[in-house]
Specification:
By secondary structure, the protein is of the alpha+beta class. It is 37% helix and 17% strand. The chain has 2 domains: 96 residues, Arc Repressor Mutant, subunit A (Orthogonal Bundle), CATH 1.10.10.10; 54 residues, Ferric-uptake regulator, C-terminal dimerisarion domain (Dna Ligase, domain 1, 2-Layer Sandwich). Bound molecules: zinc ion (3 copies).
Amino acid sequence: MGEKFFKLQDLRGMLSKNGYKMTPQRKEVLQIFFDNDADPHLSAEEVHEFLKKKDFDFGLATVYRNLELLCTLGILSKVNFDDGCTRYELASTDPKAHQHHHLICLKCKKIIEFEEDLLEGLEEKITKKSGFEIVNHEVKFFGYCKNCKGK
Ligand SMILES: [Zn+2]
Ligand SMILES: [Zn+2]
Ligand SMILES: [Zn+2]
């Protein structure tokens, strides 16, 4: 717990710090992630669809370019759930924070966030044994969610 994520008001500062200007496209693409906090992992196509519903027709290539820029700035991060589709989610404001874990339901394909790290002991062991310095990890658990389990 305790992960703090980027907010819309952080965008202007992050853009200007890196030599970019605020544009309606950049703002609205990011806004989609705040509008959809129930489903925080969105593909470029999904972001494009949500924008269309709000009467913003930026074109898929523009949406994609802006998503990539928001990743470069560290506001979004890319997640891949092995289904051939790249998704994006809001990044943590703490550069030292490790990625939360993802629980992927094999039946309904729902992706559940699991916020606790719980790997500190394992990380320590790995570092001790191999001298490897761990800065992050990407952990996916595959199985069945509460609703699909036992069906
Ligand atoms: Zn960790
Ligand atoms: Zn399920
Ligand atoms: Zn996530």
